[in-house]
Amino acid sequence: MKKILLVVFLIFLIFQMVVMATEIDVGAAATNRTSEKFTGTYMVIVNPADGTGKITSVEIYAVTGYNLTLVEVATFYVVSGNFLSTRDWEYIGNVTAGSKQTFVVDLNVVAGDYIGIYFASGGKIEADSTGTYMSKAGDNIPCTNIEFSSPVAGTISLYGTGETVAVGIKWNTQTISKWDEQVITKLNGLP
User: Given this model, what pLDDT does residue 25 score?
Assistant: First the structure.
């Protein structure tokens, strides 16, 4: 009986469920900057997503006195050159001007994606000459294979954070996430 219990214990040690969450971020800090950008679709490309997973929080800083309206945020990926498509997007609504505002979102993101925003005329978002961004007049969220401007110097106050989760089974110090070409999500009913 002791040998059976020892074997069972060893099996549990060998097949440990591994769930590793890593923080990811995309975009530029939502701060009070020295300039501003008017209505349109903008993407921050200076800090692409550093992981694959979900963006769960977005920070936006609108210029004092210029609330943003009809705001949409999105993750974008490069199709080729300056042609981009939205991976995922959400309608936020209005953003109060004069300070950093934080919104809960659920955006799919892949490492290398950009974060972007659209807001209607009358609003202004904080901007400056550091970093790099791309833009296109009008509402381009969502979009499929649309040509944006060439990257230009500058950035806007738009920042997203979230996490990526890798699920697998650890065996002999190696994480196994697939078995017979199927993604492993449970072992013996455990998530």
Answer: 97
